[in-house]
Amino acid sequence: MNTYKRLDQDDLKNITAFINRDRILWDNEINEEYSHDELSAKQHYPDMVVRAVSTEEISKLMHYASENHIAVTPRGAGTGLVGASVAIEHGIMLDTTLMNHFIELDEQNLTLTVEPGVLLMELADYVEKHGYLYPPDPGEKSATIGGNISTNAGGMRAVKFGVTRDYVRGLEVVLADGTIMTLGGKVVKNSSGYDLKDMIIGSEGTLAIITKAVLKLLPLPKKSVSLLVPFPTLAEAIRAVPPIIKSKAVPTAIEFMEREVIMDAEEYLGRKFPDNQADAYLLLKFDGNSMEEIASYYDKVAQICLQQGAIDLLIADTDERAESIWKARGAFLEAIKSSTTMMDEVDVVVPRSLVHNFVEYIHQLQSEMQIRIKCFGHAGDGNLHAYILKDQLSDEQWDKILNLTMDKLYSKARSLNGNVSGEHGIGYAKKEYLRNSVSDKAVVLMQGIKKVFDPLDILNPHKVCQE
Amino acid sequence: MNTYKRLDQDDLKNITAFINRDRILWDNEINEEYSHDELSAKQHYPDMVVRAVSTEEISKLMHYASENHIAVTPRGAGTGLVGASVAIEHGIMLDTTLMNHFIELDEQNLTLTVEPGVLLMELADYVEKHGYLYPPDPGEKSATIGGNISTNAGGMRAVKFGVTRDYVRGLEVVLADGTIMTLGGKVVKNSSGYDLKDMIIGSEGTLAIITKAVLKLLPLPKKSVSLLVPFPTLAEAIRAVPPIIKSKAVPTAIEFMEREVIMDAEEYLGRKFPDNQADAYLLLKFDGNSMEEIASYYDKVAQICLQQGAIDLLIADTDERAESIWKARGAFLEAIKSSTTMMDEVDVVVPRSLVHNFVEYIHQLQSEMQIRIKCFGHAGDGNLHAYILKDQLSDEQWDKILNLTMDKLYSKARSLNGNVSGEHGIGYAKKEYLRNSVSDKAVVLMQGIKKVFDPLDILNPHKVCQE
Fold it and tell me: Residues of CATH 3.30.465.10 domain(s) within chain B?
């Protein structure tokens, strides 16, 4: 067992020599927020929080941490769901939210260079104002781009545009020993040695600290239309997705949602959803440069939905109508959370042709386990979010039922050739399930890679593949 | 220095126990082709060539090789340009070209599962027949998909669609010790531990042997138009590209070409290029689902080209006209090769806004070094192919001038924040230039990763980052 140095007054003094004291939180200056992420059951306080403002500061800090064998937990906005940004070994929490500058919009290369603390919503506003799109679109808009890169976040537009990984052209990172390294750049192609950049993306702060990112942008589509399609049952809604994909129409997003979750969102937001006639809905979005182009897609998709049993078709071609629907969609996580005492989640991804199997299994498991499971997600890319709710269960009952339910859900995902996480990551909470879903040899490779990048295991210990 | 076992009659006997003798080439059964790739100056014969037909065979072979410390060089069609598929340490050459089956077209998940020996041209035909597009489009259509994945091949459509990496959803690989491993799958998103799949992609057969690939497909665009634009000079042609990118039109491809190279292609193909009025050309392609959609793009681009000094605009909206142009483009490498006695290449990639700097430097270097350098490439994604020609130089002069020219070209690329290889890889020939272009620490990380995957260094030794 690796033991880490806990910080004392000497460390505070030493670190204050290269980091301004007013950007160091120490002892009771450390807010409760820093002891958990969005979903942690347990609190873990770091000994110190450092709010860095530059790559050089982070380099010095990592050098100090490696010399003194101090655990360092990088953290963006703390919106994660799997404990990746929780300081299990105390030590230093490295908060990058003050590094939130837009460094360069390069319109000749279609790249945007940013610091890691820029929030997703700020990024979206910035590029749209300049006529560009940064396609990854996770529900949590107050996450940082650094956090999004660290989990390879996906979001709703993955059906058409892919995930965060597909939009990171270059990174500047600081390694565990303080080395500053640039990976990739503004270049469109690269076959120059092993792909260290993609190894960092999705590594949840365990291999290096992201201090700068060069993102790929697309021209902003001029028009978009959303289509809300009510179905009698969720099974019918989800079964309509493979024929849509097969039809060669290319929706930007295909989300599924159930009445119960929509009702939670109505209550949470204090506003009505535009439709209430059905138990289940598909919500589709189409983008393009002209209404004719988009219409050719959604006409075809509308036909397919009706053939598959859709009750109605609601076209949201004004900003207001579309916003009221997508706002509800965006509030699902918070709405479900506020409907119960405690919850945990699975974020599995399965081949998109098999989403209905998984959803039917969830329904069956609810009765079998006598527990509420709320579910919504990305029907178009096979990534489901299922939330298991504690409600009035005792802590003891909850632990037992939760573990059993989790085991069953992940085991079902494996049987469908799915993976543990589509976009939330592994962090601390899903380590055991990752272990069960990949081979022992794959874990050995991951641990070997961890050791290459961070031989002292000081960067975000006990996460992803580490004991 | 690692020493490898050379194969003897006992090895032949042992390997024949699990590989059919008629798929083993031994001694003088080994064709000269297997001693080099498309551009090697020196011959290196393997002791044995194994033409594998299954993952299980490859697993057994790697197990045998690791037990006996035999070097193994994986090889597809041998069309590489940097020596990655050359058996420097003799040993076993593992030829995967007989593993050339289409395993599954999954239209609900838009994936195609193939064996590694499928040729790029076969793949293109197959998916187009079913109404799909596999976007990566390298010039060398007789390369295997396994080779393409191993170099992260790019090609002409990268401007719009990206590179091979972006279209590999899953891999089955055999590790150096014979372990069979599946990475990724049909899933669209994945945040389940470190990204081993992307580590294999572009690793040029040094980390694992690819035995199966799940590729992502797109619906085939219904229409396409090519635009050939003559310019008075290459500099003017290339300077038109950044304004095109900035205009938010999205061409599928933007290639540049010079009269001299076109003349080589005319001679090589024995047919005339459709235009001969200019010293330099841009060749653009636009794809879409209707002519209206495409016209809106190329009208804008045509205006920009004229503003930037284009002499004329030639629209190829029939298959015949387009084919005659793209056929010439496809023959450039062979045509240049046949115009000289020997050549070597650089495949640098620079930010696309800086391509003109690099091309101007090449022109200057030609006079400075008194050597012919032919150049063409992907103006839209910053990836240039420059060929340095030996012509009538003596071997001694050639070695000297080639080395000096190479040093200068790579040094220029570095100064433009470029990378050593956009799509051809590092292999054996570009190792030294990779070393000069990345930090020592990056090389240490790469070598560490190599050791994790292949601790005995038997897989394709002396390539990419290894001594």
Answer: 102-219
Residues of A in contact with B183 (CB under 8 A): 442
- Check pLDDT > 90 for residue B261: yes
CATH number of B340-426: 3.30.70.2740
What is the side-by-side order of every strand in the sheet holding A314-316? Answer: A314-316, A223-231, A280-288, A253-258, A373-378, A383-389, A343-346
List the 263-282 stretch of A: residues with Cβ below 8 A of B: none
Give which of A113, A173, A194, A248 to mutate to test B binding, by max B Cβ within 10 Å.
Answer: A194
Measure the CA–CA gap between A358 and B306, rounded to whole angstroms. Answer: 56
Residues in chain A with CB shorter than 8 Å from the CB of B196 are 442, 445-446
Q: Do B193 and A464 touch (CB under 8 A)?
A: yes
- Determine the angle formed by the axes of helices B395-415 and B355-369, rounding to 10 degrees: 150
Sheet holding B180-184, edge to edge: B102-106, B111-114, B209-216, B168-174, B180-184
Judged by CB atoms closer than 8 Å, whether chains meet at A159 and B188 is answered as: yes
Q: If you classify domain B223-333 with CATH, what class do you get?
A: alpha beta
Size of chain A in residues: 467
For residue B189, give the nearest of A181, A423, A464 by CB distance: A423
Long-range contacts of A23-26, Cβ-Cβ distance < 8 Å, separation of 24 or more: A23/A50, A23/A51, A23/A52, A23/A53, A23/A98, A24/A48, A24/A49, A24/A50, A24/A51, A25/A49, A25/A50, A25/A51
Cross-chain residue pair B185–A419, CB shorter than 8 Å: yes
Fold of the CATH domain A340-424: Alpha-Beta Plaits (3.30.70)
Amino acid letter, A109 = N
Strand-pair partners of B49: B25, B93
The SS3 assignment for B225 reads strand
Q: Where in chain B is the domain with CATH 3.30.70.2190?
A: 223-333
Average pLDDT over residues B401-425: 94
Q: Does domain B102-219 have CATH number 3.30.465.10?
A: yes
Task: State the smallest CA–CA distance between residue A25 and chain B in angstroms.
Answer: 31
Within chain A, all domains assigned CATH 3.30.70.2740 are found at 340-424
Chain A CB contacts of B358 below 8 Å: none
Residue in B166, B191, B383 closest to A421 by CB: B191
State pLDDT tens for residues B105-130: 999 999 999 999 999 999 999 999 99
Give residues 354 to 413 of B whose Cβ lies within 8 Å of A: 378, 380-383
- Gap from A141 CA to chain B (nearest CA, Å): 19
Please tell me the predicted confidence (pLDDT) of residue A113.
Answer: 98
Query: Which member of B110, B154, B245 has the closest CB to residue A110?
Result: B245
The candidate with the shortest Cα–Cα distance to B181, out of B457, B453, B459, is: B453
B195: nearest CA in chain A? A199
A221 in reach of chain B (CB within 8 A)? no
- Residue of chain A with shortest Cα separation from B352: A109
**Residue intervals in chain A for CATH 3.30.43.10:** 9-97
Q: With a CB-CB cutoff of 8 Å, which residues 79-118 of chain B face chain A?
A: 106-110
Cβ A258 vs Cβ A280: under 8 Å: yes
Read off the pLDDT of residues A414-441 as tens digits, 9 standing for 90 and up.
999 999 999 999 999 999 999 999 999 9
pLDDT, tens digit, 9 for 90 and up, residues B128-146: 999 999 999 998 999 999 9
Q: What is the CATH number of domain B9-97?
A: 3.30.43.10
Helix A259-269 vs helix A319-330: crossing angle, to nearest 10? 100
CB-based contact A181 B439, cutoff 8 Å = yes
Stretches in chain A below the pLDDT threshold 50 = none
pLDDT at A1: 57
CATH number of A105-219: 3.30.465.10
What is the ipTM, given to two decimal places?
0.95
Tokens of A361: 């299994």
